[in-house]
Amino acid sequence: MSKTKEAKRVTTHVLQEMKARGQRISMITAYDYSLARLVDGAGIDVILVGDSASNVMAGHETTLPITLDQMIYHACGVVRGCERALIVVDLPFGTYQGNTKLALSSAIRIMKESGAHAVKLEGGREVAGSVERILSAGIPVMGHLGLTPQSIYKFGTYVVRAKEEAEAGRLREDAKLLEEAGCFAIVLEKIPAALAAEVARSVNIPVIGIGAGAGVDGQVLVLHDMLGINKEFNPRFLRRYADLHHIITDAVGNYISDVRSGDFPNTEEQY
Q1: Same domain, 269 and 204
Q2: Are residues 265 and 177 in the same domain?
C-alpha cells in the first residue's frame, strides 16, 4: 500500500483522544525498515520496536540478551520506514532497573540516535523512580505490567499473571502509580480479561492488551507471530492473519528448483 503524504502523525495526545472517544488503538511490533514501511502504510497506530527482536530477529530464548545498541539499530530502521505511526522503543534488560541515572541516559540515547517518539519499560513501583526521571527530560514513557518477559527467570514460567487476588491488587495499584507518574499508556500482558478491563476503566490513559481480553483500549501483537512466520509459538491470544511460513518456504523452494533446472533466469530476465 502506498503511503499518503498528508498522513497525520499519531502522537501520545492522539492516543488519549482515541481512548476518550472509545476508538480502539492498533499496535504491532516491527524491527526493520521494510516491514515497518509496510505496516505504517497499512495505517497502524503504534509501532513497538520490541525487545522481542531478541527472539524473532536474533533467535535467543528470552528477551534478556539484546543490548541497547542493538535496540537503537533496529529502531533507526523502523523510524526511516514510517511517516504516520507513533514509534515506541523498549528499554532492554539492564538499562533502567535500579538505576535512575542509567535509565535516563539509556532513554536519551534511544531518542537522540534513533529518532523514535517514546520508550517503554517493564514494571510498576520498582521502576517508578526511573519512569519519573525519564519523564523529567520530556521523554514519553509507556508502562508494562502483568507478564513482564524481562523478569522471566523470576517468574520461572510464562503462565497467566495476576490470577490470585494479592497479585491482582498489586497490579491495580501499579497501574494507578504509573498513570500518576506520568506514563502516557500501559501495556497489560497475559492477565485475566476481567482484571484488564477493570484496570482500563480505572485509569485515564490508554491500556493496550496482549493476552488481556477485549475490554482494554487497544491490542498489540508481535508481527512475526501474527503473520505466521513463527509456527512454534501458539498461545491462546494469538490470531494468525497470514501463513507466511508456508508462502516463503514454497517461494524459496520454487526458486531453488528453477535455478537447478536452468529455468531461471529465462531469456526475458537477462540483459
Answers
A1: no
A2: no
Q: Are residues 83 and 169 in the same domain?
A: yes
- Tell me: the pLDDT tens digits for 74-100? 999 999 999 999 999 999 999 999 999
Q: Is the pTM of this model over 0.90?
A: yes
Given the residues 165, 189, 198, 232, select the one marked as catalytic: 189
Question: Is the peptide bond prior to 65 cis by the omega test (within 30 degrees of 0)?
Answer: no
Partner residues linked to 29 by β-bridges? 48
* Number of domains making up the chain: 2
User: Is 174:125 a contact under the CB 8 Å cutoff?
Assistant: yes
Catalytic annotation present for 189: yes
Q: Where are the alpha helices (DSSP H) in 67-164?
A: 68-80, 100-114, 128-136, 152-155
CA dihedral sign, ordered 182, 175, 152, 233: negative
Cα–Cα distances (Å) from 271 to 97, 104, 264, 265, in that order, read: 58, 55, 13, 10
Per the CB < 8 A criterion, the answer to whether 245 and 229 are in contact is: yes
- For residues 49 and 53, what is the distance between their CA atoms, to the nearest angstrom? 8
Q: Which domain holds residue 250?
A: 244-271
Contact 148, 113 (CB under 8 A): no
CA 218 to chain centre: 12
